[in-house]
């Protein structure tokens, strides 16, 4: 098992809730394979460090939203480092954040940004879903605020910008599912620039395991439970915020010499099924590099670097990946991916 495979496998064990993890494993065994990204760079710690200062006003119409989903979110870059856990060790990859160009984001995605503004409360934690952006492949991001006037002591740093809820508090997780029961792979990244002692501002990045139908509703699920003396849930509570996407960021299609196709939007990329040669034993994507017309590159994924927030295989074998920054689709020259035969595959428009 390679460092990256061990890294992804360990993260999946640490971060998926029991319910979601079992669902995903069942889906993977029956119909598809899930890819995992990111792991705490060290033992996770509560409480989450916050940056005070309130919300910044940006020039663009959706500037604050775009800085949250495409920008640094106040997160520091992570260097390549060694991790030891349960008698195993491996090299954890780097992650680099980038400030969003608000005018470019507004040009590419401004008209597709939508507000929700609904709130629900579970065990004293109020979830407000703010704004979202979704592309025509179902890949997207939604911003939300988690508020507790008594403080956010249960919010724990999981590394790479992610957080999880301590087992000491009843509020457990914020999840996503369609009203038709379709699941999403998702990751929650903290926006440190807006988070305070009582308000956690975060971005949920997501990709669907199944293609969404026209008019299909999406639910943000806010849930928790209290443990009784018998070690089982004594009380449970769940609230849902539902919205129906009706505006989707378009994607451009790129093709390799072998005839494989990829669809790329400012927020993510989908490689059509079958994904290259999935039947090749031991082969996984290790490289995803976007080259722009000016010669600059975005190393979305490469040796010892992982700038992909979410990566998963859908039920039909498509590969979906969510970027950690804005991709200017009007300036892409090519997309390079490692192939199963060891040779790079280049996708062009």
Description:
- The protein has 349 residues and is mostly beta strands.
- It has two domains: 186 residues, no CATH class; 96 residues, Immunoglobulin-like, CATH 2.60.40.
- The chain is 12% helix and 40% strand.
- It is built from four helices and 23 strands.
- The radius of gyration is 19 Å and the shape is globular.
- 40% of the residues are buried.
Which geometry do the CA atoms define? Answer: globular
H/E element string?
Answer: HHEHEEHEEEEEEEEEEEEEEEEEEEE
The pLDDT mean sits at 84
Write out the strand line-up for the largest beta sheet, numbering strands in chain order: 4-5-6-11-10
Strand content: 35-45%
Number of helices: 4
Low-confidence stretches: 10-44, 49-60
What gyration radius follows from the Cα positions, in whole Å? 19 Å
- Percent of residues in helical segments? 10-25%
Q: Tell me the count of domains.
A: 2
Largest sheet: 5 strands, antiparallel
Strand pairing plus helix content: what structural class? Answer: mainly beta
Number of strands: 23
